[in-house]
Amino acid sequence: MTIRAFWLSFIVCLTGCAAPTLSLEGAKAYAGFDVRQFVATRFTDKQSVSRGDLTYYTAYFNEVNNRQLFRPIEEITNLCKAQDGELTRTTQYLDNPVAKSFPNPTAEAFSAFAEARYAYQKNPTQLNRDMLLTAGGTAFSRAEYFNTAYDSKGAMKGYEAAARTEAYGTFQCLNKLDRIKRWAVAISPLGFVKKQANEGLSTHELVIEIRPL
């Protein structure tokens, strides 16, 4: 591990060290719980807030350390296994709150150019002509600077690693023998909070909603 990787990982823990992810062996102690009891019991650390049946878990992550993004699905999976069940995903979560938080430099450039062209056509002054010539490039550079300042690549890399492993969506726990449903739950990213990089380090936040169905 490089020095930068070490600090990227370390800063996540400084920001929010959640309770360790429950192992399969540990989940056996909760084998008699339904999913509502389990979530209400397990997600009580400082990164979790409950509102009735809804639990909101804030995962801190960056490009190197994204373990907290996996905690909800891993614990729910281990609960199902501890009950001699198999967790299956019934609905895929398709949205990407991280991508929506960062501008697309090319799209920003085209939009700025279109606005400048409209202004010049409506009022062909020298100022508007100068704006027409520079608007696209300025918008592109501004978006790229923003994305670099907030480490968009690191944020996307961390989030997409979790999304690819089916960490989010709706799930049901089926008995292995008769395939009867024991319970169901939805795990969905609710909001993303980007953090500005400090000497190349960023620690972003993803609020994940855990909702028994």
Q: Order of helices and strands, N to C?
A: HHHEEHEHHHEEE
> In this structure, how is the largest beta sheet organized?
6 strands, antiparallel
Query: How many β-strands, per DSSP?
Result: 6
Q: Quote the distance from N terminus to C terminus.
A: 41 Å
Q: What value does the Rg take, in angstroms?
A: 22 Å
| Number of H/I helices | 7
Tell me the strand percentage band.
Answer: 15-25%
Catalogue the unreliable spans. Answer: 1-15
Helix content: 40-55%
- Write out the strand line-up for the largest beta sheet, numbering strands in chain order: 1-2-6-5-4-3
Q: What general outline do the C-alpha atoms trace?
A: elongated
Which class of secondary structure composition applies to the elements? alpha+beta
Mean pLDDT: 80
Structure description:
This protein is of the alpha+beta class. The protein is 43% helix and 23% strand. It has helices spanning 3-15, 24-27, 35-42, 71-82, 105-122, 126-149, 152-164, and strands at 48-51, 54-61, 85-92, 169-175, 181-193, 204-212. A 6-stranded antiparallel β-sheet has the order 1-2-6-5-4-3. Strand 1 (48-51) and strand 2 form a beta hairpin. Helix 5 (105-122) runs antiparallel to helix 6. The longest helix is centred in the middle third of the chain and has 24 residues, at 126-149. The protein is elongated and about 75 Å long. The two termini are 41 Å apart. Residues 1-15 have low confidence and may be disordered.
